[in-house]
Amino acid sequence: MDMRGNSKSDPPQADRNPKRQSGLTLIELLVVITIIAILMALLFPAFKGVQDQAKQTQAKNDLTQIVTAVNAYYTEYGKYPLTYDAADITVDGLNGNTNDKLFNGLRGQDATVNPKNIVFISPPAAKDLANPRSGIGGNGQYYDPWGKPYIIRMDTTYDNVVAPNPYLLHAGISCERERRGDCVVVWERQPIGQRPRPRAR
User: Fold this and answer.
1) How many CA atoms lie within 13 A of 158 on its CB side?
2) CB distance 165 to 148 below 8 Å
3) What is the pLDDT of residues 115-150, one digit of tens each?
4) Which terminus of the chain, N or C, has fewer Cβ atoms within 10 Å?
5) Residue 13: enclosing H or E segment and its boundaries?
6) HSE (CB half, 13 Å, CA atoms) of 130?
C-alpha cells in the first residue's frame, strides 16, 4: 500500500495548516459601527444648519415675490388687493382672516379681486396639501417653509404708514421714513426663539 497517495483518512491541506481567515470579528464590527455612529452624530448639526439656512433663503425669496406681486397689483389697479378703510389690513390667518383670498386674487383666480385675471405671482403647490410647507396648501393659503401662513400687512388707509410696523421693533426700514404710498410689509412666523423677518416695499 502506497502511503504517499491520497487516502480518505488524510485531512485536507488547509485543515493541517490552519490560518486565520480574513473577516471581521464581532469586536471589530462593533468598533466600526461605533465610529460610524460618532461621525453621524458630528455631521447631523451641520446638516441641520444647512437645512435651516435653505428654509430661510426660501422664505426670503417668497417674501420678495409677495411684495413684488402686491406692488405690481397696486401699479395695475391703483389700489391694494384687499381694502379696509378703518385700519391697515393684516392678513395673518387669525380670526378667519386667511391669506387665501389675497393669493387667489394675485394668482388671477378670483375675478372679484383681480377682474383682468392677471397672474402677479405663481407660488408652487405644497407637496403635502394636508400639512403644507413652502407653497399653497389645500385650503388655498400660502405657507412658509415652517408650515405657517405668511403674514401680509398693507397700507390700505393710504397714509404712507403701515401700523403697527414690525420693522420698527427690529430696527428695519419703515414706510414712513421712505415716504412712499405703496407700502407692504410681509413676514413669516418662524419657530419660537427666532424673530420675524419682515420685508417692506
Assistant:
1) 9
2) no
3) 999 999 999 999 988 889 889 998 888 988 888 888
4) N
5) helix 13-16
6) 0
